Amino acid sequence: MLIVRDLRIEIGPRLLLDGVSFSVQPGDKIGLVGRNGAGKTTLMRTLMKQRQPSSGVVTTSGRVGYFSQEAALPDLETPDMTALERILAARDIGVLQRRIEATRVEMGATTDEVQRERIIRRFARLQDEFDAKGGFVAEAEAKRTAAALGIGHDELSQPVATMSGGQRRRVELSRILFAETDVLLLDEPTNHLDLDAKEWLMGHLAEYRGGLLVVSHDLPLLDESMTSVLALEHVEIEVYRGNYTEYLAERDRRRAQREKERRLQEEKIAQLQRNVMRFRGKTEKMARKAKVIETRMNRIKGQLVEVKPADGKAVAVRFPQPVSSGRTPMTASGLAKAFGDNVVFVDIDVDTNRGERLLIVGLNGAGKTTLLRILAGVETPDMGGVELGHQATLGYYAQEHEQIRPRFGVLDHLRAVSDQPDQMLRGVLGHFRLADKIDQDASTLSGGEKTKLALAMVVLARPNILLLDEPTNNLDPQAKEALFTALEQYQGTIILVSHDTDFVARLNPDRAIIMPEGDHVYFDEALLELVALA
After folding, report:
1. Tens of pLDDT along 478-502?
2. Quick one: 306 exposed, middle or buried, by C-beta within 10 A (0-12, 13-18, 19+)?
3. At the N or C end, where does the chain have fewer CB atoms within 10 A?
4. Which of 482, 435, 432, 439 is nearest to 454 (CA)?
5. What is the C-alpha to C-alpha distance for residues 60 and 15, in angstroms, rounded to an integer?
6. What CATH code is carried by the domain that includes residue 477?
7. What is the spatial distance between Cα 452 and Cα 314, in angstroms, rounded to a whole number?
8. Which residues span the domain enclosing 135?
9. Is 481 in a helix, a strand, or coil?
């Protein structure tokens, strides 16, 4: 159970939440919604006591599990901890297995009988503890959870430290769901999940008996799994019963009702004001009547229904039309990449045409992000090479926001990629609704805000080749629409990795590269099924 009372959260001079109270009880399935930057992620971190509120109280009972939208490498018990060990660690089983194996090795290497006897007793105690925690039955459950979330058998034995951000997020989600929790706080859990994994997650959350609070821009998840909604807007939270669709209808109904009540109050005030003006300054009796009317009018003014405006101005994304590149802005031939024993792909060729929309598609682990990083010059191929054509310039958006550095402000990030005056840079941040965060440490931004900052950095570079890796992750529907409009109008070349089927379908790529084979095909709607599985 989780109870929040009179919570106030501030980041520097900016007030995010004030006077917020709610609870998460067993069986609750609550969606937390609000625009990017409203404070959803900061609230989740505060509930987990990773940051202190300015005032108010957060009380928890039972075990609380938290899934962060960040893909940062977690603190590991051992540097070479595997994905399976990380998942099992949620019930202290992974560490036990490692200790059991180390004890077994020590037992086999010991020749001293007295020492060997002590090691045998320790081995027996560890084995009993392993059995008490579920042992191999729990391990089988962990593997089933991992498989349902798209973690392959080979990935389970891969060290977490060598995994991509998307792989780490799936491992962390598996760990949280495998843990025996009473309350789950999930921040964008569907990012990096394919269609089957999303469907499994929705079913799992529907059957979860504890309390659930989830932040997600995945509307089907909110519709199918939620029983109530907390809407964060204008530093307050309003509670709605029902799923996301019912929330939207009720929100509009409440707003219309408030506007009607406010309009009636203002009309009444105007009528009373006219009466005051008519009676004032005449006879003493009429002046007293005017005073009574004025008192009544002031009372109504003090009870005016507050009608808050719809959330701020829209995000305005616009990629300046770039200098035209040559007819073939980029080519790559014979690309190969492996990480240790894991061969990601071999003999991949890439060729692009000026102004083309090229989609890189494939299942999880097929090497889409790795190929994009090689094309961007961030990763070095083991074989092959990449060549840029005449006047070709690159703009790379990384899904893990690798270009955003801790301890550097938002405006500092734009200064690092542009020599334009600060006034112009502030204007760009205003278009991305980041103007009130110019001095904030960029690493403390929400996932959606980091996406906007990273896109703003790409915009300022004025590239004629855009390399985009899951650009719609963490974006609210309005920001996603703004991004689509900007890309639709952009005249340069786009190379895209995305699992967002609606976004891909609307962008309508010209061609696709199917990984890991590297086959080039013309794009048609049949490929959207593979996009959904990505």
Report:
1. 788 888 888 888 999 999 999 888 8
2. exposed
3. N
4. 432
5. 24
6. 3.40.50.300
7. 13
8. 77-164
9. helix
Whether 215 and 187 have beta carbons less than 8 Å apart is answered as: yes
Q: CB of 475 within 8 A of CB of 36?
A: yes
- What is the torsional sign of CA 333, 339, 340, 346? negative
- The label of the residue with tokens 């961030």 reads 378
- Based on the domain organization, do 293 and 336 belong to the same domain? no
At what angle are helices 93-109 and 135-148 packed, to 10 degrees? Answer: 130
pLDDT grade for 530, boundaries at 50, 70 and 90? confident
Q: Which residues are within 8 A (CB) of 85 and not within 5 positions of it... i.e. 6 or more apart? A: 78, 94, 95, 97, 98
Tens digits of per-residue pLDDT, 194-233? 878 888 998 899 889 999 999 987 877 778 888 899 998 8
- Cα 28 off chain centre by: 22
Spatial strand order of the sheet with 29-33 comes to: 64-67, 183-187, 211-215, 29-33, 228-233, 236-241
CA distance 253 to 454: 37
Q: List beta partners, residue 345.
A: 337
Tokens representing 87 are: 């998942």
Q: HSE of 512 in the Cβ direction (CA atoms, 13 Å)?
A: 25
Total domains in the chain come to: 3
Strand 330-339: give its sheet, edge to edge. Answer: 342-351, 330-339, 383-388
